[in-house]
Design a protein that fits this description.
heterodimer, A: HU Protein, Chain A, 2 domains, two-stranded antiparallel sheet, 3 helices, B: mainly alpha, 4 domains, three-stranded antiparallel sheet, 9 strands
């Protein structure tokens, strides 16, 4: 399901037009992003948790050249599905 | 910051932004996530622009083992939801660390070196926060710290908060500090490194001082070394507090002057002074940090004013002073304890060395004595007070075999049986004439504070007495026993026979 069909699906469920749905989805994602940037985690019942995790720096060895590289630490968004969702997709 | 956001919160904000009904907004948010699940179920794949891609990934069944029973069992194949954030979201989230780049490592770089670099880097970037951290420590808010350590994801947020404290900082600085991400975590390491780097130098100073002094106590080198770290830890700790320097130095000066008083008597005391010296060394070295923390303190205060927490500030200050004085007392106590322990050591030590030295000395003297002794005894006797030598107990023998050192080496067989009969000492021995005075004709206690210049009186040992008790009677201290032992050439100081007549030496201070 790509973005377009996703918007259509949401629009049909909520009764908004595709255009306004797209706007609403965009602003919702903006809000979520802002929260994640602040380090907050987003809990959605029956869906899961979206949160930011810090990955530590590490040393990576290139399999081609055997060159060792220092990979810097980074922050990533991680999604953890709730148990109910997990069960649903088993 | 590190709070949990529910869909209600999201809906509220959405409603505010899009000026729609809250209920409608909540319904919309709910259906948003529902559709994601719906899409996953039908197509196993949902891509949302600006957020990312949810995918269902099949996990094949595999065999595993129960860790408790060792029983083998199969994990059923199942679907796993994977989420890959959109590139734009990824970048936004990783913004604090965005300036980092993957760098190739030189082949000879070890992980230890990397750690060292890390520590340096953290040291710099968290300089702003060190002050805060110390406050936290003073408040013994260790739990808070451990919290931060345990939850790495919250650390960035935590540093963000402290950043907003130092409002004056520019954005770049913010990023810099933020990127350090785990300042609290690294703090102990940093301080450890500080002490580490300080240690070698102070030890060096000590060694210099030691080598310039003549006493050679083997234990001397060990003692300061063991005591050093704690002392330093105290110093380093206290140093990072502003306006501490002056107060830290003053007790050291005190201890220095205290040392000076006794220095003349006990040359072996150079160690405490060295310790004090190294202490000063440290304070001068760590000055830059102090300056920094000074600046930080100002910033901190500004911030406090800004938030209007003057009460909190007061409390902190009080604790700060308590802390400073505590560390000062600890320093002084350490100095005193060390000094006392040292004097104790010094008093015991001479006995052991003398026992070894005695033999060799008398071997040297032997030929001279034996050749002169037999006939010339009455004539050469110049000094009635010289210590008795057992050579005289068998004058004929020694006279007939003057070159035989064996007879000279047996004074221990009949210790001081004829103490009243003085023997003639060799008048000058090249090895001992360094002082140039007449002290050289008497046995000396090496490392002692007194010259032996003659016999003050004689004393007959009574039942139950030890050399140390006698020393206490005549010199006021048991620690003077080595002088009696040395002067009377007692080979076994622990067993002195009752009725033995001892020459109590007359002492003259080496200190002019």
């Amino acid at each position: 399901m790509n973005n377009k069909s996703f918007i259509t699906e949401v629009a049909s469920q909520t009764g908004y037009t595709n255009k306004s749905t797209q706007e609403l989805v965009d602003s919702l994602i903006r809000i979520m992003t802002a929260q994640l940037e602040d380090g907050n985690s987003i809990l959605v019942p029956n869906f899961g948790t979206l949160e930011v995790k810090k990955k530590n720096e590490r040393i990576m060895v290139s399999p081609m050249t055997q060159q060792r590289m220092l990979v810097p630490p980074k922050l990533v968004v991680s999604f953890k599905p709730s148990t109910s969702v997990k069960d649903k997709f088993k | 910051m590190d709070t949990k956001i529910l869909i209600q919160d999201l809906a509220k904000e959405l409603a505010a932004q899009k000026s729609i009904d809250k209920k409608a907004a909540l319904a919309f948010v709910q259906s948003f996530f529902d559709v994601i699940l719906e899409g996953l179920r039908t197509e196993k794949y949902v891509k949302i622009k600006g957020l990312g891609t949810f995918k269902l990934v099949d996990v094949e069944s595999r065999e595993s083992m129960n860790i408790h029973t060792g029983e083998r069992f199969e994990i059923q194949g199942h679907a796993k939801i994977s989420f890959t954030p959109d590139a734009t979201l990824k970048e936004l989230i990783n913004k604090p660390f965005a300036h980092f780049e993957t760098v190739p490592l030189a082949d000879d770089v070890t992980e230890a070196e990397l750690d060292a670099i890390d520590a340096q880097f953290e040291d710099k970037s968290i300089a702003d926060q060190v002050y805060d951290v110390e406050d936290d420590e003073m408040d013994s808010a260790e739990t808070e710290i451990s919290d931060r350590i345990v939850e790495p994801s919250t650390v960035a947020a935590a540093s963000l908060a402290t950043l907003s404290d130092t409002v004056s900082k520019a954005d770049e600085a913010t990023e810099e500090v933020k990127s350090s991400s785990a300042p609290v975590e690294v703090y102990p390491e940093v301080s450890y490194e500080k002490t580490e780097s300080l240690n070698p130098e102070t030890e060096k100073v000590e060694e210099e001082v030691l080598s310039s002094d003549k006493p050679i106590l083997p234990s001397e080198n060990e003692e300061p070394a063991t005591e050093e770290p704690t002392e330093e830890a105290a110093v380093v700790e206290s140093v990072s507090v502003p306006e501490d320097e002056s107060s830290v130095e003053s007790p050291q000066k005190e201890s220095l002057s205290a040392e000076m008083e006794n220095a003349g008597e006990e040359p072996v005391e150079s160690a405490p002074i060295a310790a004090a010296l190294s202490g000063e060394n440290i304070t001068s070295e760590v000055k830059p940090d102090e300056d920094q923390s000074d600046v930080d303190a100002e910033e901190e205060e500004k911030y406090l004013d800004y938030i209007d927490e003057s009460e909190e500030k007061e409390r902190r200050k009080v604790r700060l002073y308590e802390w400073i004085f505590g560390s000062i007392f600890a320093l002084i106590a350490m100095g005193i304890g060390y000094f006392i322990g040292y004097v104790h050591l010094a008093s015991r030590f001479p006995n052991e060395v003398e026992v070894i030295v005695v033999d060799t000395v008398y071997v040297e003297k032997a030929p001279v004595d034996s050749t002169i002794l037999p006939q010339t005894e009455p004539v050469i006797r110049r000094d009635e007070t010289t210590p008795p030598l057992n050579i005289k107990t068998e004058p004929a023998k020694t006279g007939s075999q003057p070159a035989k050192p064996a007879t000279q080496q047996t004074p221990s067989e009949k210790p001081t049986t004829q103490p009243a009969k003085p023997a003639v000492q060799p008048t000058a021995q090249p090895a001992q004439t360094s002082s140039g005075s007449d002290h050289s004709q008497y046995p000396q206690v090496s490392g002692g504070a007194y010259w032996i210049v003659g016999t003050a009186q004689t004393y007959k040992v009574r039942s139950g007495e030890t050399i140390r008790i006698i020393a206490e009677r005549f010199f006021g201290s048991r620690q003077m026993a080595p002088y009696i032992i040395k002067y009377n050439n007692i080979s076994d100081p622990d067993h002195v026979a009752e009725g033995t007549v001892l020459n109590v030496p007359k002492l003259e201070s080496k200190k002019k």
